[in-house]
Design a protein that fits this description.
- This protein is an all-alpha fold and 143 residues long.
- Helices cover 66% and strands 0% of the residues.
- The protein has helices at residues 7-29, 46-71, 80-103, 107-128.
- α3 packs antiparallel against α4 (107-128).
- It is globular, with a radius of gyration of 16 Å.
Length: 143
């Protein structure tokens, strides 16, 4: 299978997209974006939105940490097997999320979030098929 982008580019794009996603969730928490545009508009009240948005931020932060470890940006001993399992779990999560966004009655989810989640699934696939046991980028601590 021919992969169109490198592991390094995939990791960097994931980190950028997750940063944007976290900013978006913070803006929803601050009320700048209405919570009706997330989860298919099924959130009934602001407290439900706060709890779900907080969970989404935490999950995104954990993803950023794992990708940063894989990329060699963070020096932390973690098994490549655990990283690989996490990446395959993210692929499944983002594929399910993509279908949910496409089936949503909300145009924002269909037009904006579905493509983002599909791209994230593909980028995680690139990381998951990595067969190396070493980080893909030399850490600044290794110098």
């Amino acid at each position: 299978m021919k992969i169109l982008i490198s592991q390094r580019v995939a990791a960097n794009v994931i980190l950028i997209l997750l940063s944007i996603v976290i900013i978006f969730h913070i803006l929803v928490l601050l009320g700048i974006f209405p919570y009706s545009i997330v989860l298919g508009g099924r959130i009934q009240d602001k407290w439900h939105a706060y709890s779900l948005e907080t969970i989404a931020i935490l999950i995104s932060c954990v993803q950023m940490i794992l990708v940063s470890i894989h990329a060699g940006y963070l020096k932390f001993a973690i098994s490549p097997v655990i990283l690989n399992i996490a990446f395959w779990a993210m692929i499944a999560l983002f594929l399910i999320n993509t279908f949910g966004n496409l089936l949503s009655g909300n145009r924002v989810e269909k037009i904006i979030f579905a493509p983002i989640t599909m791209v994230l699934a593909y980028l995680y696939f690139i990381l998951a098929i990595n067969k190396k046991d070493k980080p893909i980028v030399q850490s600044k601590f290794d110098k």
